[in-house]
Write a structure and sequence with these properties.
alpha+beta; 6-stranded antiparallel beta sheet; 32% helix; disordered C terminus; Bact_Sigma-Reg; hydrolase; protein serine/threonine phosphatase activity; PPM-type-like_dom_sf
Length: 396
């Protein structure tokens, strides 16, 4: 049997918690691998943590300043010479969502096709880990450098992922403090014709804020999956929140729907997180007609606004935990600082921008603890995919 097929068959056939053991055994048998490890990115995207039977028992690998971290950041394989041979760090990613790094040490210099082959195994492993999370906590535990709060556990489970990429767009999002997030959240979904992006900023803190946000996101998903227009989605979610909280709690929300064939954007601003657009080397805040947050009053009507995305546009969304944050001497992180942050991160891929902006925000605070949770989402619009077939049923 072809060795590639043999390795891929093992990945498909082993139990979810034995993925790494099966891959390690297969690579040793068919490629003579000296060592094989899987490093998972932690929730803060600052560390890579080794998958082991007992979690929290090995030292993490920093993303900054390491060969493995470089592979994770650039999403390109990196190599180093070690005593046992050549060590490769291969990105483990699925559809643009970066999960970690596969580390493979081979006994001697290899021809390039071997590394390409191993890179395909890393991609296959990403898909298997993604599916395995349904059935085992092993890889979820490996992502943690400390215990999550209950609210954070609820919020991370609610997310669609932390990055997504297609020919038309690339998305990346991050929440901080990663291990104690509570009210901020984002959601997205793409079909053949549309990309839906939702930014949510629920009031309150702790588990009560997480419960509020969970209800809002699931109400919006339920409405979106019913195939109704964007304004009606907001109105149904508004009714669900009001029915539960009677106006005592509300959720600031921004809903956007991109037409993947044209770049036309429908938007509903319900007291939303803020949006910045980077176009042609210049940054500007995109202002909407701000409407009532979801759940404020019964039977609120919402109005859709229209924007146009151009190829090369970058959109950066931030919650109130980012803007107006005070520094050690009371200076606010305002519009000017946000504009500068968007420009400073212009050369980064969309998946890396949120972490970079939040790191700068942490420096503005002087390294102290955050008074509020924060969300940053970055969307790069590349333009319609010439190879896409948009001749599909309406609403798909």
């Amino acid at each position: 049997m072809d060795r590639s097929l043999a390795v891929e068959r093992i990945l498909r056939d082993v139990q979810p918690h034995y993925l790494l053991d099966g891959l390690r055994s297969a690579l040793k048998e068919h490629f003579g691998a000296v060592a094989v490890d899987l490093l998972m990115a932690d929730y803060s995207l600052a560390e890579l943590r080794r998958v082991t039977v007992l979690p929290y028992t090995t030292d993490p690998v920093p993303v900054a300043g390491t060969t493995a971290g470089e592979a994770f950041t650039t999403q390109c394989a990196t190599f180093e010479t070690v005593e046992d041979g050549i060590r490769a760090h291969l990105p483990v990613s699925v559809r643009g969502d970066r999960l970690g790094i596969l580390v493979v040490t081979l006994p001697e210099e290899q021809e390039p096709p071997v590394w390409a082959e191993l890179g395909r195994f890393a991609e296959a492993l990403a898909h298997e880990v993604f599916v395995a999370d349904r059935d085992t906590d092993l890889y979820v535990q490996a992502r943690r450098s400390s215990r999550l709060t209950l609210a954070a556990e609820m919020q991370w489970q609610l997310l669609p992922g932390r990055a997504c990429a297609r020919p038309e767009f690339a998305l990346g999002g991050q929440l901080e403090p990663a291990y104690a997030i509570y009210g901020d959240c984002f959601d997205w979904s793409a079909s053949a014709r549309k990309l839906s992006v939702t930014l949510v900023n629920g009031m309150g803190d702790g588990a009560s804020a997480a419960l509020l946000t969970n209800l809002a996101v699931n109400a919006l998903r339920n409405a979106r999956r019913a195939g109704i227009p964007l304004d009606a989605q907001a109105e149904l979610a508004d009714q669900a929140l009001y029915a539960q909280y009677r106006g005592q709690e509300h959720v600031a929300t921004l809903l956007l729907e991109f037409d993947l064939a044209t770049g036309a954007i429908d938007a509903v601003d319900a007291g939303s997180p803020r949006l910045w657009r980077f176009r042609g080397g210049k940054t500007e805040r995109v202002a909407f007609d701000e409407q009532l947050p979801l759940g404020t009053f019964e039977d609120t009507s919402y109005t859709v606004e229209r924007l146009q995305a151009l190829p090369g546009d970058r959109f950066v969304f931030v919650s109130d935990g980012v803007y107006n944050v005070a520094g050690p001497h009371g200076e606010l992180y305002g519009d000017r600082e946000l504009a500068e942050a968007v420009i400073a991160t212009a050369d980064l891929a969309a998946a890396h921008v949120p972490r970079a902006v939040l790191a700068e925000l942490g420096e503005h605070r002087g390294g102290g603890p955050a008074a509020d949770d924060a969300m940053v989402v970055c969307l790069d619009w590349f333009g319609p995919n010439p190879g896409a077939d948009f001749a599909v049923a309406a609403g798909s």
